[in-house]
Amino acid sequence: MFDPVAKLKEYIRHASVSADPAYAEGMKGARECVGGLLRGIGFNVEYVPTAGHPVIVAKRGGDASWPHVIIYGHYDVQPPDPLDLWTTPPFEPVEKNGRLHGRGTADNKGPLMAHLAGVGRLLESDPTLPLRITFVIEGEEEVGSKNFNSFLREHREKLAGADFVFLSDTGIPNANQMVITVGLRGMVCFEIELSNARMDLHSGMHGGVLLNPIQGLAELCASLHTPDGRVNIPGFYNEVIDVEPWEREELTTLGLKEKDYAEFLGIGQFYVPPGYTPFEAIRFLPTLEFNGFGGGYQGEGSKTVIPSKARVKISCRLVPNQTPDKMKAIIFQAIRERTPKGLKLKITDQHDAVPYVVVPPGRSNTPAEQSPVLARAFRATDKAVAEVWGRPALYLREGGSVGLIADLKRELNLDAIMLGLFLPEDNLHAPNESFNLAVMQKGIETVQRVLHNLARG
């Protein structure tokens, strides 16, 4: 069996940034690194081409009566910028104080390594394990999994007969409490551009006689929220379903403190719609957020112009029952109606994701129909977590989006068991990303026991 920490360091050194073609060699290296590990533990490995980066599909076959689990991961990472904020080189892993530092350590190379090592150890100790396993590891999660739907439709036969999806691309609140994520918010991303004159204008000669696109865009953006933090768009909350009591109880069990979390984030206070704690709002409510705002001169010093254009990037997180198409229709209508007169509006629709939720057995008064193998897998997970972590798992929704989970549900009718492994302090998508190696070791043991419990009962 390979050393998972040593292999994770090797994996991190491949700068696999999917968003930037300059990192093509790093993408190839990361792909081959994972493929080599999978071959080493006995899997048949294939790199399936897509319009973008290939998907790794690795299989361990077996009798059709055996359970069949798909283990998902991604080998791409976020860009490392801004580089000057890193205290260690982003693609040269550094181990210190029980953590491994480097881009991709927590998202998703470390958690994926826990699955690779867990499966490797299990098969080494039990070579006749009655379990079919298919790894599906894509290279475009960090750019919206834009070719994953096509992969699912065109290569359905490669995943035929699967019972559920097992993955770790979600978080836990601390190093001692396992959380199984049972819900993910969806997403809508778009950009607004407002324009006026054909070119930038001299502010002394034209100021005060035409509407500055930056001013118009600021007024438009300000209209999209109410003072109490709610999104100010008619119908925005119409499809939001009530939170079940068991979900609030699970969240309360964590004992999270607003003051402590505010201090961790470095903020003075939370800005939450009435009736919700911040911990509830990030799981149960939809949002509209401004991700970038610009126009005119952005360099050092001053340049007295009225810009011809101004732009804002917006993302909305969606909750179950809200679909991207339905939400874009009402959001775009409100934007068109509120665009100041005299300005030209351009909306650029970007990527989106559908919300996802699964109800674990015994957690709801109105349980959804589930396959027997999925229910068995949840029980296997409960048992493994209690053994490894010394306390029961909590079942919570998460505020983030993993759009391909809903894609797998829609295309293949597969639900997911999402084993959280990264921590709030891991700095996902930010400089100085790191991964807690003790959590990785517990993750390896948990994966090994979940799959053993599922296969051997």
List keywords for this structure.
Alpha-Beta Plaits, globular, alpha+beta, 9-stranded mixed sheet, 3 domains, 13 helices, Aminopeptidase, 34% helix
Could you walk me through the main structural features you see in this protein, from its secondary elements to its overall organization?
With 457 residues, the chain is an alpha+beta fold. It has three domains: 4-184 and 355-456, Zn peptidases (Aminopeptidase), CATH 3.40.630.10; 186-240 and 286-353, Alpha-Beta Plaits (2-Layer Sandwich); 241-280, no CATH class. The protein is built from 13 helices and 18 strands. The strands form four sheets. Strands 1, 2, 3, 6, 7, 8, 15, 16 and 17 form a nine-stranded mixed sheet that branches. A hairpin with a 2-residue loop joins strand 4 (94-96) and strand 5.
| CATH H level, superfamily name of the largest domain | Zn peptidases
**CATH C-level of the largest domain:** Alpha Beta
Number of domains: 3
CATH architecture level-2 label of the largest domain? 3-Layer(aba) Sandwich
Largest beta-sheet characterization: 9 strands, mixed
Indicate the structural class. alpha+beta
Tally of DSSP β-strands: 18
Distance between the termini: 25 Å
What spatial form do the alpha-carbon principal axes imply?
globular
Per the CATH scheme, the topology name of the largest domain is Aminopeptidase
Q: Give me the Rg, rounded.
A: 24 Å
Helix content: 25-40%
Count, helices:
13
